[in-house]
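pinned: reference chain
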Amino acid sequence: MVPEPPPLPSLTRAEGEFVDAYLEVVDLLGRINPSRTSHTYGALRAAQALVGRATALRDALTLMHLRGESEVHAATLARALRVLDGERRSARVTVREEQAS
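pinned: its structure tokens
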């Protein structure tokens, strides 16, 4: 039986949208990463989608700012990212290590 993941920390709606949009951008960057992709078409589609997701990320941050949420609570948002598998997802953005031949 798979253990249940820890619960998400309490987030405002804007913080939740910020985290979601951030992870979507990270996922797309992972698909575009030249050291990890093998087909231009998939990378092209991800790059096209990136514009919309970056806009959603900007909008979430704008909403936070307009609501007076002037601070990013990094520890809380980092816990949310860990629960949502953010470490594995963001690792795909890094340059893949060389394989020994």
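why pinned: The longest helix spans residues 40-66. The chain has four helices and no strands.
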